[in-house]
UniProtKB/TrEMBL annotation:
Alphabetical UniProt keywords: Membrane, Transmembrane, Transmembrane helix
GO CC field: membrane
Signal sequence coordinates: none
This protein's name: Tetraspanin
UniProt similarity note: Belongs to the tetraspanin (TM4SF) family.
Lipid bilayer topology: Multi-pass membrane protein
A Pfam family the protein falls into: Tetraspanin
Gene Ontology biological process terms, A to Z: auxin-activated signaling pathway
């Protein structure tokens, strides 16, 4: 009779195998998809690594539990144990770098209240030039559309990146002409903000050099990394359950092998 623990290990490994394939498919989507996701390939590597590990390890655990190959099951449990530690460490890292004191609602007028790690690795120095050029090449702002009234424009569901990189800050008091054409007030900007002077109607400039554009990009990273953190927590819970039942299955396999050896002597 197939023991319950062996069945559960096989079932959980089937789930983790499907989850691994989903992670690989998602990483390929981020890598191949068009648009501003090309500038955000920082999700590709972690998703691909997690997905490949899940698929390979799941197959190992499925064979070890279903076919009662104890040696393979022992190797599987060792790998799963270190996977649990690695995913836990990575999840803690994601939590730390995405939980600086940030307002609950994105506001591009606030100061850059993101972790130093995110700022140093994405928007500080020459690193921002690469991202900025990538955003330009992706035609981020041209996808908004350039026609319609100001009321229609503000009804559009703009992403934080589009709202921050393609438009001047609202506080500057610029007058809307179309999606990428704004005129400055005759008396000058309404507030003394450097972004008001940085804005240009030139399509290759717009507000790509604005601090608000950098905040919009960081806001999008924070959102996607938090989604990755939730995915990691689901994988972690699945791995812990699988490891627990795997230990029981290993004990069952050893016990069955002893009984089979005992009865073979008669």
């Amino acid at each position: 009779m197939v023991r319950v623990s062996n069945f559960l290990v096989g079932f959980l490994n089937l789930l983790s195998f499907i989850l691994g394939l989903a992670a690989i498919a998602m990483s390929l989507y981020f890598f191949l998809s068009s648009g501003d996701t090309k500038c955000q390939k920082f999700l590709v590597t972690p998703l691909l690594v997690i997905g490949m590990f899940l698929t390979v390890v799941s197959l190992m655990g499925f064979v070890g539990s279903s076919c009662r190959v104890n040696f393979l099951l022992v190797i599987y449990l060792i790998v799963v144990f270190f996977m649990i530690l690695g995913i836990l460490a990575f999840t803690v890292f994601l939590f730390m770098v995405t939980n600086a004191r940030v307002a609950g609602v994105f506001d591009k007028t606030k100061t850059m209240d993101y972790s130093n790690w995110l700022q140093n690795h994405f928007v500080n120095g020459n690193k921002w030039n690469d991202i900025k050029n990538c955003l330009k090449d992706s035609h981020l702002c041209s996808r908004i559309g350039s026609h319609g009234s100001v009321a229609e424009f503000y009804k559009k569901n703009l992403t934080p990146i589009q709202d921050s990189c393609c438009n001047p800050p609202k506080e500057c008091g610029f007058e809307y002409k179309n999606a990428t054409l704004w005129t400055a007030p005759k008396k000058g900007p309404a507030v003394a903000d450097s972004d008001c002077k940085t804005w240009s109607n030139e399509h290759q400039t717009l507000c790509y050099d604005c601090n608000s554009c950098k905040r919009g990009f960081l806001s999008n990273i924070k959102k996607e990394w938090r989604n990755l953190m939730i995915f990691n927590l689901c994988v972690l819970l699945l791995m812990i359950c699988t490891y627990t039942f795997g230990c029981c299955a290993k004990r069952n396999n050893r016990r069955d092998s002893k009984f089979s050896g005992y009865y073979s002597n008669y």
